[in-house]
């Protein structure tokens, strides 16, 4: 597929939507046979992402190379709780 045939969106703040339409036709001819193969149709996939506390939905990136779609969803840095040592008396 070509990148122009695929659409990547973030809906409702945390739903990754990948959609598109495939239009293809392959034709083979030889002296005796004529064959046409068509593969076309629309597709739609939705993935629910973790909340904004876990991912940076405003920084989602998509790339397509050699027909392979790569979607990158950066994670938020998890703030680790501060740990204090407590002296044990006794």
Automatic annotation (TrEMBL):
Q: Which organism is it from?
A: Rhynchospora pubera
Which keywords, in A-to-Z order, does the entry hold? Stress response
Pfam families linked: HSP20
**Which InterPro entries does the entry link to?**
A-crystallin/Hsp20_dom (IPR002068), HSP20-like_chaperone (IPR008978), Small_HSP (IPR031107)
Q: What is this protein called?
A: SHSP domain-containing protein
Q: Which residues form the SHSP domain?
A: 1-90
What PROSITE patterns does the record tag this protein with? Answer: SHSP (PS01031)
- Say which family it is in: Belongs to the small heat shock protein (HSP20) family.
Q: What domain of life is recorded for the organism?
A: Eukaryota
């Amino acid at each position: 597929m070509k990148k122009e045939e695929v659409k990547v969106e973030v809906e409702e703040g945390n739903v990754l939507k990948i959609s598109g339409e495939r239009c293809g036709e392959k034709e083979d001819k030889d002296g005796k046979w004529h064959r046409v193969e068509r593969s076309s149709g629309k597709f739609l996939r939705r993935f629910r992402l973790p909340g904004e506390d876990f991912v940076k939905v405003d920084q989602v990136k998509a790339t397509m190379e050699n027909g392979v779609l790569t979607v990158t969803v950066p994670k938020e840095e998890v703030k680790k709780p501060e740990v204090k040592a407590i002296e044990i008396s006794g």
